[in-house]
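Troubleshooting log. The previous run stalled partway through. Resubmitting the same four chains, unchanged.
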Amino acid sequence: MSDIASDDINTWFAPDELALIRRRLPFVYVDVVPVRVDADGAIQNVAVLLRTPREESIQRALVSGRVMYHERIRDALARHLDKDLGPMALPRLPVSPVPFTVAEYFPTPGITPYHDPRQHAVSLAYIVPIDGDCSPRDDVLEISWLTPEEAVSPGIQAEMVGGHGALIRQALSHTGRVV
Amino acid sequence: MSDIASDDINTWFAPDELALIRRRLPFVYVDVVPVRVDADGAIQNVAVLLRTPREESIQRALVSGRVMYHERIRDALARHLDKDLGPMALPRLPVSPVPFTVAEYFPTPGITPYHDPRQHAVSLAYIVPIDGDCSPRDDVLEISWLTPEEAVSPGIQAEMVGGHGALIRQALSHTGRVV
Amino acid sequence: MSDIASDDINTWFAPDELALIRRRLPFVYVDVVPVRVDADGAIQNVAVLLRTPREESIQRALVSGRVMYHERIRDALARHLDKDLGPMALPRLPVSPVPFTVAEYFPTPGITPYHDPRQHAVSLAYIVPIDGDCSPRDDVLEISWLTPEEAVSPGIQAEMVGGHGALIRQALSHTGRVV
Amino acid sequence: MSDIASDDINTWFAPDELALIRRRLPFVYVDVVPVRVDADGAIQNVAVLLRTPREESIQRALVSGRVMYHERIRDALARHLDKDLGPMALPRLPVSPVPFTVAEYFPTPGITPYHDPRQHAVSLAYIVPIDGDCSPRDDVLEISWLTPEEAVSPGIQAEMVGGHGALIRQALSHTGRVV
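Second attempt completed without errors. Output:
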């Protein structure tokens, strides 16, 4: 998932509580594929975040994060988009809560295309058009607006964390931009 | 469907050709539920058109119309939205071609919730947020922005043509505004 | 949610742990609308469970329950269907993980149509055709196969727990059986 | 589309009528990705039809065909599945009319991933699990049950007609079998 360096859940639970919960409960997440669309609604670009890696390799990710206690999905989407893309991004939040896919992240690789070594997360994934200007915040080093062809290229896909490359391919497939 | 007075298909076929085709082929249509959304993406209002009726009763309808030969669905959506809501409506066309429902209009009532005495039409239905200003054009007398509660009230529902009341209820249900 | 009497989460956590977590994390749930379909795939009946109530009033519910740690959604669906409808129900599990809606249950009523006084749960809702024979198990007193019209009647709707009546209406709306 | 040799529309219209209509109206189609699923609903195999080609090359296709006048989508699905897979196929028709994608076939290649040199067709695409036994009928020479990996292999994809390879990839992506 995208919370590589700044893991906000650390601030809500004591470390021993968190360790307990992470081995016993799945978390609710949202994943966002941020896109630029033309006047016809066709996708022109996909935003990919370059994050401060914990490890040495480059890691690219989508906007992603937990749904908090008593938080609506809409509010979680708005919060994570604001945190990662900045307050002027002007995202068009979805009118329906139905995701284009559900990504199941397991700590064990290979069960699904998604993997998160820290936890089990069930993530609702949405495509969100961005109308405004984005500015990297917190641990995001850079926001790259890639063409669909660039986003599915082997080089970029190899740099994406735990299944976010697969999510981009699924999002493009869902919109009829088959890959 | 909504083309109550201005039936553009009349201009493409001679009357005898049209009569022949209308009894032998289903038409491809698009239906649009135009909505105003707040910053969170939640629906605030639904646009309902008051059209010049052929008959004496008041008739309300959604944005709706045929897909023409060699026309993409996106282009048909843009064309019908422009025709009915005016050029300053700034609709947010969908990023995916997957409709929230498929409405099958039959000339025989009762097979589905949708009915069109003139023809068999298979219509892809989309929810489209409107950002700009709308002005009635052509045969549209008035555009009413109703709250979801008003739009599903018995009075308004009774004035909607051939199943468009059902489409509004389905659109709201799809977005979690259960009716 | 449906776990009115047999709350399996009690067996995984000590009471004080559970009290802690329930106030601080949303749970991942699945909801199922079990249906009988004819050869054309059209819904003939909806299964509604009559559960042993904690309180005095009658309570009807759908099949519903938590997704456990390291459990796939498919496996959670199979487990809860087996538990509530018996081992001979022969459910047709969905080929896609995309739910027909996402129900957000909050302990505070009125935020969404769904309510669970015990917890915040984010539930993926699926329509599942049942081919086999059902037998009530555990705390289920009776399984009623209602017609769509019966299922949305005011009497039945008033007996459904925390938004399950709304889920049935949304499921029928999604399939074109508009209510 | 799949009606390579047996084009049933020829029997409904005189040749000159058909030539007229094909240049002036889009047709309504259904496309089906027939699959074998395991008890969990996960796709094991995809059925691909080998048809008698008009031209010399081998051509593989999905189940596909027109929606007729006054025919429901459900009935069109049942009719084409029966015609191509035989009367013992026992398809599980979808409970909802919402397709997993809408394929727009244009006579001009390159506008979408789908292409039909004969006509413009708007096709609703469904994934349909098959429980029974299939037997090739009419112009179908062979029905191959391929694994998802085989179905997306370059060799098979190159033999698929007008975008049916893309439809298989989209169907698998929709079910979480990312390709």
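Takeaways: The first strand of chain C starts at residue 27 and ends at 37. Residues 53 and 70 of chain C are 30 Å apart (CA to CA).
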